[in-house]
Amino acid sequence: MRQELMSLPKTLAEDVARNLVMVAKLLDDEPEQAYQYARVALRLASRVAAVREAAGFASYAVGKYSEALAEFRAARRMTGNSDLWPVMADCERGMGRPERALAMAGEPEVQKLDRAGQVEMRMVAAGARRDMGQADAAVVTLQSPELASHSIQPWTARLRYAYADALLAVGREDEAREWFAKALEADQGGTTDASDRLAELDGVEFVDALDPEQEADDGLKPVAEPKVAEPKVEEAEVEEPKVEEPKVEEAEVEEAEVEEAEADAEPEAVEPAVEELQSDEEPEDAEDEGQDDDAEDSAEDVEPTKAEARPEDQAGLPEKDGDDS
After folding, report:
1. Integer Cα distance of 149 and 285 in angstroms
2. Can you say whether the dihedral through the CA atoms of 72, 76, 77, 82 is positive or negative?
């Protein structure tokens, strides 16, 4: 890779190298970010085989098998190397073409692979068999001298794990448990979940003490009892006023009706009486006032009249007597 990068301008080579370093660093734990760095490196130097290979592995890690296969093919054309043959076959599996992956397992390129590459190709072929519904054939495909070897190689744990999984798929649970244990023994780097598979077969369930979801579930358990009791108290509290409310309303309605009836009856009885009193009293008052005024006026008029009339009355008396005679 260094020789390929040296063919680039210094600044460009440094930028490409930094992106490739980030791809290698993030590929296992943060594949999405690794994929983004790989795309940057690919835009900067698409004619460098190392860049095409890194882009292929980044695409493979995020499940973009079509892109990965294209990048691997380009890298193989540039280098003429067959080391990528097993992963290219696995991309065919990922694209839903297990028969092509199985055909690649019988190609002459497999003979050019080293021992690790051949073991990898065997596992890909066994996976293709299982994809095609040939579970028993997958078990037979994995049976090899590398599987029976007691030496620990970088690929030993993965090979034993694949064989144990294939056995479990055909119902050979006891043998599967034995090979999961052997895979765990060889898995020094923690590349498989053999321990979890063993626990699952043994019926053991692990609980993460720091799992917030588990803590939340545990915290909800003591609250179960009050939750059952609360509705009873609420129902009792709600039922009591429901019985009393209609009575209060009926009493209020009856009082209101009585008050309305009295209010309607009183004006009818009182108003006519008031009118009669007014009609009777007003004339009397008026007559009294008139009489008083007339009396006062007559009193004023009578006194002088009497004084003036006395001589006339005296003079007139004989006239009456004479008329009578």
Report:
1. 142
2. negative
